[in-house]
Specification:
86% helix; single chain; mainly alpha; 0% strand
Length: 173
């Protein structure tokens, strides 16, 4: 009788310990994923602030900041399957939507900068002697550069309007 009671008690304690360990692990995983996403959102915000500061000082869009934003988005992409641990569907959707929009802004900025470079080369009067074609290429280059700056402004506005609140939502337990 004592032996059976000991076995039953052991089984119950083992099951209880396993359940408790699973529950604590799930909580830890949810907190870790939220912190991970919040860290990415904050890092992107800092990079966009640095990009904006550089643009204001030098009127140049620095490719390194765009590359670093891509790195943050890539890290999220490689770990995206863990996003399911965030139980709040709205919060999960907001994280995914925010990072998708940031990636879209960066991609559009890169496209416009490539158009600027291509048109700027064609507008070089020493390389292309046609003055009308060179002038048109210079105009297209300037339009592309203005578009890239506009897209960077939109990126800054997105990060300022949604990034801070999203990071705070992710940091709440």
């Amino acid at each position: 009788m004592d032996y059976s009671l000991g076995v039953i008690t052991g089984v119950i304690l083992s099951a209880l310990t396993a359940w408790l360990g699973y529950t604590l692990n799930q909580r830890h995983q949810r907190r870790t994923i939220k912190r991970f996403c919040a860290d990415i959102v904050v890092n992107i915000g800092e990079l966009v602030d640095n990009l904006s500061e550089t643009r204001e000082k030098h009127r140049v869009i620095d490719h390194e900041f765009l590359d670093l934003i891509d790195v943050e988005i890539g890290i999220f992409g490689r770990n995206r399957e863990h996003l399911i641990a965030i139980e709040d569907d709205k919060l999960r959707r907001n994280v995914r939507d925010y990072l998708t929009r940031v990636a879209s802004h960066v991609a559009r900025t890169r496209i416009q900068l490539r158009q600027f470079s291509a048109n700027n080369l064609q507008g070089d009067p020493q390389r292309y002697p046609d003055p009308v074609g060179a002038q048109r290429s210079q105009q297209l280059a300037q339009e592309a550069l203005d578009g890239a700056h506009t897209t960077c402004d939109s990126l800054r506005d997105l990060v300022n309007s949604r990034g801070t609140s999203l990071a705070s939502d992710l940091k709440t337990e």
